[in-house]
Amino acid sequence: MSVRIVAQLAVRDSLRGEAHAGERAEIAAQLSRSGENLPGVIASHAGAHFDFSVGGGDLTWDLSFESQDALADFSSRVRSGNEHGPHEVMAALGVGDAKLGELADLGHQIESAEFAIPESLAEGISRPGLIGVKRTLWLRVLPEAKPNLVARFERDTPILAAAIPAIRNWRWSRIRTTHPYPMETRWTHLWEQEFESVDGLQIDYMSSPAHWGYIDGYFNPEMPEQVVDVWLAHLACPTRAPVLTATHTR
Amino acid sequence: MSGADGREASAGPETDAIFVVDELHLKTGCLDVFLGALHERYVPGAAARGQRLVQTLVTPPTATEGLAQSVMLIWRLEGVAGFWEMRSQNATPDIAAWWADCEAFIESRTRRYAAAPEAIPGFDALGRLSV
What we know:
The structure holds two protein chains of two kinds.
Chain A: E1 4-11, H1 21-36, E2 41-48, E3 59-65, H2 68-82, H3 88-94, H4 101-106, E4 110-116, E5 118-125, E6 133-139, H5 147-156, H6 159-163, E7 169-175, E8 189-195, H7 198-207, H8 209-212, E9 233-238
Antiparallel strand pairs in A: 1-3, 1-4, 2-3, 5-7, 6-8, 6-9, 7-8
Helix pairs in contact in A: 2-3
Chain B: E1 17-26, H1 31-48, E2 52-59, E3 70-78, H2 79-87, H3 93-101, E4 106-114, H4 120-126
Antiparallel strand pairs in B: 1-3, 1-4, 2-3
């Protein structure tokens, strides 16, 4: 059972653009620290996205929990905050705990937030403790996609990790849609990877024939086997601590 | 190498070429109308995206009345960069409408990406630079 939350957060418009990269990095650092103080959280990492990221927010926030109960409590707080608007989510996380005041304050910098619980379909770890680059692909399987093609897509995606050694650690997940979950979201799956550097993602991953010659068929709108909506969130950030193996090193 | 409509492109053995292989199983009697629509509505735009038509084959090779035919289209892309150049431009309403309208002509279709056998080690190596 998954005891993780992955979130993408969008900052206010005034914090966008190259000139504000330092401020976004500072927000990410504050999120990482504050997240460690949340009840039941055993690892918190937030990273500001590289400028080549597209389709989603400005920050990725990864949280690991000590138990399913802690995960459910966090999800409940997110849901209650989200009822009052996306920017209230951060405030709701900080309610009732002075140590979380910084987290509540960060809510003023956040325009929107999407939280998801990844339920692992498959994973691979070849470099525990890696600090480098984390890429999270948020995707939505089309509601009208044929079930046999979706099953094949879910089975085939890990082929990328076999073909591309630059993918050091990876996890392939469905997003939980049954209670308790933090919020309704348009996304159905998460494809997470860790690389040593941006080149592993930008060069090896994009050049691999397993990618463009095979797996991309599930994403390509001209292909009969397309099952994924063309609106993807391709989000990558530098890491300051292990993310996919955060709990392996504790 | 290629005219504006892509019909003259080379299918040569260069090891960076990527080929798009379409197989379309047509409804009986639809060959001429399909090929006409293909060249009017799809080929010019595909060429503009760097996807050039190099071969059109029909099977069975006869126009016998009542016999359904299949068309194989082989297109060429200029390497991995050419592939992503094409992919950055193919999520458009016009292209989606073309394939939706094709259902009037075809029973089913497949599209595959292919390369010359001698090109495969080089392509695989591109994805394994950070071993």
